[in-house]
Amino acid sequence: xxxxxxxxxxxxxxxxxxxxxxxxxxxxxxxxxxxxxxxxxxxxxxxxxxxxxxxxxxxxxxxxxxxxxxxxxxxxxxxxxxxxxxxxxxxxxxxxxxxxxxxxxxxxxxxxxxxxxxxxxxxxxxxxxxxxxxxxxxxxxxxxxxxxxxxxxxxxxxxxxxxxxxxxxxxxxxxxxxxxxxxxxxxxxxxxxxxxxxxxxxxxxxxxxxxxxxxxxxxxxxxxxxxxxxxxxxxxxxxxxxx
Amino acid sequence: xxxxxxxxxxxxxxxxxxxxxxxxxxxxxxxxxxxxxxxxxxxxxxxxxxxxxxxxxxxxxxxxxxxxxxxxxxxxxxxxxxxxxxxxxxxxxxxxxxxxxxxxxxxxxxxxxxxxxxxxxxxxxxxxxxxxxxxxxxxxxxxxxxxxxxxxxxxxxxxxxxxxxxxxxxxxxxxxxxxxxxxxxxxxxxxxxxxxxxxxxxxxxxxxxxxxxxxxxxxxxxxxxxxxxxxxxxxxxxxxxxx
Lengths: 243, 243
Description:
2 copies of one chain form a homodimer.
Chain A: H1 9-15, H2 19-22, H3 31-37, E1 45-49, H4 55-62, E2 67-72, H5 75-83, E3 90-94, E4 107-113, H6 122-132, E5 133-144, H7 146-149, E6 157-158, E7 164-168, E8 175-181, E9 183-190, H8 193-203, E10 205-213, H9 217-222, E11 235-242
Parallel strand pairs in A: 1-2, 1-4, 2-3, 4-5
Antiparallel strand pairs in A: 5-11, 6-7, 8-9, 10-11
């Protein structure tokens, strides 16, 4: 199964202190870009893969979704999601995205924020999503950008002229990357953008949007310490249509 | 109009000594990846944007194309292409891709190798290509990869462990980049992958292939000095269907 770092006690505690954990969607700077790719949710059946505390599930219901299914591999996450949700139309279930089987009832919109880079068998997951989505349905997701995940020893460097730069190596060598994020030994899967497109197209999705996210000028004005994030994209955000 | 560096005498002389100029398609390491995206050319009307010496135009005819139109901004290039071509079904014409108008006669396949990164008005070019391609037609092209074009001062760095790395900066700041390639002051347009996808989709193309090219293990075995090219992709190769 997927490494379930979210049930590690130290990780869970550290994760709970991140802005996106404390403030929810508003604490995730890339949320406006993800939101922009979502279709109107009114009356739609929505799936959230890697739902965490359930922030997006509740937001979807507030924006008219008929039903929401939130899946996560972490029992700790789901316990907190359930504790913070009072809505019979939101169902949470434990699921390992590494072995995702087609849903019995189709959905209209599948959403995932920063979960797919933990999944080794992404081809299997996309096949399962294609089988779970109604024709014309939407898949909207974010992952860490491959420029961000590629380096063996990721980090900023200072060029001679003081320009911060992100040294890229091993970009074309896909596979696991072990990083120390919140705790030591978190394993993420590095995949090129080309790989994402190829897996999606072969699974029967049309790629309608591809956003290499960085903060806007307004966001940098509000958070000057984010300026370096324009030197290289942090997130890859994709919008797809199920054919 | 587009900076026409190819009619610069020093550039033209240096360009003529590159392996891809001397050996043609076989001297371009990314050619097998481009070729893999081409449909069967038998009986098809083919367009080559930035045809240079006409290598691809002649190859297309050898592979059954009914007719080939080769466009280039450089009179020097076209003179040599004409001198090396004896085939009434290949027509060469001078054209500035910056102001590309729809062709009077539609084509089935549009091809371009390493020309679009010189074009400022890529949206206009894609619109013209959409209008020039028959429905279901193919657009296959390569450009320099944005990881390659992004840095203000491109080049390799050595990390502490001796791993060659390509420091990336300014990735999200699109626009002109002036580099010294063969001669000083060559201007290329840096665009993200997301921008290419967005312009294509808005112009009515479906993105069917996206390849971030680097040399294969076999190519590195034959050319050990290419090994660093796997640290970051050199070329972005895209295949699209005209909807």
